[in-house]
Amino acid sequence: MTKKEEFKNFVSTHPSLVNIVKDKSHSWQDLFEVYDLYGNDENLWNKYLNTVDNSSQSKDTSKMNSIGELTKLFKNVNIDNVQKYIDTAQKAIGVIQELTGGGAAAEVISKGPSVSRPINKIFED
């Protein structure tokens, strides 16, 4: 068996090494060179495997913290107040539409003149 095949088998027994490459802290070439020089010495590889475990735990902890913050935020929201603000905003939009003419101005612009003029008639000749 070649060194490459041995390294593939080693990685298959330690799938957490894939996370090291995904995090871009090391490349496959770097890991293969370490394996080529030192083999599968557990004392050496523990350094790499522990960094993967610690980084995944910190990511999980940060996810849980952000979820906890979101739940605290939503616990403090009063749904009745939110509904009142939405109703007020809808009324304000309705008033603005009435003042600007709403959709009536758009209909006049899109229709164009109601009576077509002859082509040869210019400036009401």
Q: Could you give a quick summary of the protein structure above?
A:
74% of the residues lie in helices and 0% in strands.
Helices and strands in order, then pairings?
Blueprint: H1 3-13, H2 17-22, H3 28-38, H4 42-75, H5 79-100, H6 104-111
Give a structural overview.
By secondary structure, this protein is mainly alpha-helical. It folds into 2 domains: 1-77; 78-112. It contains 6 helices and no strands. The protein has helices at residues 3-13, 17-22, 28-38, 42-75, 79-100, 104-111. The longest helix has 34 residues, at 42-75. It is elongated and about 95 Å long. The protein starts with a helix and ends in a 14-residue tail after the last helix.
Radius of gyration: 35 Å
In terms of DSSP E residues, the strand content is under 5%
Q: How helical, in percent, are the residues?
A: over 70%
> What oligomeric state is this?
single chain
Distance between the termini: 99 Å
Poorly predicted spans: none
Number of separate strands? 0
Overall SS class: mainly alpha
